[in-house]
C-alpha cells in the first residue's frame, strides 16, 4: 500500500490560494506531489458542515493540511473578534470532523504564536501554553486556535490518527494581504513605503510605538518546515516554527524603507495598539528534527517587494 507521504497520495491543502496555502502548494509540487487537491472558499465554504463533509467524502485525502482560516493583522483581530472566533472554530471543526469520518491518516493543523500568554517567558516554549493571560487584541482568534490544538490531541488519543499541530511565528511573502487596514505589519509597510516614495511624501506613519518585537519567517521556509514535520514529526504537542530571532517594528520599518528606497522620516501613531510586546518562539524542538530556515529577513523582504511590484502595485 502507498505511504501517505508518497508523491501520489491525495493531499488536500485547505486554503491553497492564501499566503500559506499557495506556498505549500508550490513546495509540494516542487517535491513531486502529483495529486494535490484544493478548493477556493467560493467553491467550498468550510464553515458549511454539509459542503465540507461532501468534499472530504468525495476526495478521501491521505493528507489534510489546514491553512484555511480567517486571518488578519492586529486591527482586524481587535475589531472583529466575533468572526475570528466563529469562522475559525467552524472551519477547523468541520474540517477535522469530516477528516475523522473518512479516517484521514495524517493532518497538519496550523495555529499561530498568538496562542501563548501575552507575557510568556522569552523565547516562548511550547510548554508555555495556557500558563497566563492572552493578548486582548487577538484573544478570540487565539482561543479558536487553542481549541484546534486540543481537537488534534483528542483525535490522536481517542482514534490513534497521526495528526499534528504547528505554531508558526509571523509570516510574510508572495500572495500576502497588502490591504492597508486588515493586513499584517510587513505587507502593510511594503505598501505604505512604496506609495510614500511614489508620492514623495515627507513621512511614513507606523502604528503604535515601534518598540514591540516580532519574529518574521518567509512563507517558503514555513512550507518547507511543514513538509519536514509531516515526514518527521508525530507527537500530540504543538511544535513552534520560526527563525529564532526577532526585530523591533522600528527596525523592520527601517529595513523596508531601505529596500523600497524611501528616504523620508518615520513617525508613530500612538492611538494604534502595540499588541504583545514580544513573541519570540523557542524553536529548539524543530531544529532538533533537522530543519532550519534558509531565507534571511533582508532577502525575504526584497523578494516580497519585487513580488508586490509585479503583482499588486
Ligand atoms: N499570516 C501569518 O502571519 C500567519 C498565519 N498563520 C496561520 O496560517 C494559516 C493560513 O494563513 P494565511 O495564509 O496567512 O491566510 P490567508 O488569508 O492568506 O489565506 C487564508 C485562506 O483560507 C481560505 N479560507 C478562509 N475562509 C474560508 C472558508 N470559510 N472556507 C474555505 N476557505 C476559507 C481562503 O480561501 P479563498 O482565498 O479562496 O477565499 C484563503 O485561501 C492560518 O491558519 C493562520 O492562522 C499562523 C501564523 C502567522
Ligand atoms: C500573526 C499575528 O498577527 C497579529 O498580531 P501582531 O503580531 O500584533 O500583528 P501585526 O503584524 O498586525 O502587528 C505587529 C506590530 O506592528 C505594528 N504596526 C506598525 N505599523 C503597522 C501597520 O501598518 N499595520 C499593522 N498590521 N501593524 C503595524 C502593530 O502596531 C504591532 O505592534 C494578530 O492577528 C495575531 O492573531 C497573529 O497571529
TrEMBL record:
* Pfam families according to UniProt: Epimerase
Domain (NAD-dependent epimerase/dehydratase): give its ranges: 11-242
Per the UniProt entry, what are the Gene Ontology biological process annotations, in alphabetical order? 'de novo' GDP-L-fucose biosynthetic process
Q: Where is this site: Important for catalytic activity?
A: 112, 114
Annotated active site residues, numbered on this chain, are 141
| Residues binding NADP(+), per UniProt | 15-21, 110-113, 145, 168-171, 184
Q: InterPro entries, alphabetically?
A: Epimerase_deHydtase, GDP_fucose/colitose_synth, NAD(P)-bd_dom_sf
A GO MF term: NADP+ binding
Q: Which residues form a coiled coil?
A: none
Gene3D superfamilies recorded for this chain?
NAD(P)-binding Rossmann-like Domain, UDP-galactose 4-epimerase, domain 1
Q: What class of enzyme is it?
A: oxidoreductase
According to its UniProt record, the EC number is 1.1.1.271
Q: Which UniProt keywords apply?
A: Isomerase, Multifunctional enzyme, NADP, Oxidoreductase
What does this protein's UniProt record list under function? Answer: Catalyzes the two-step NADP-dependent conversion of GDP-4-dehydro-6-deoxy-D-mannose to GDP-fucose, involving an epimerase and a reductase reaction.
Protein's name according to its UniProt entry: GDP-L-fucose synthase
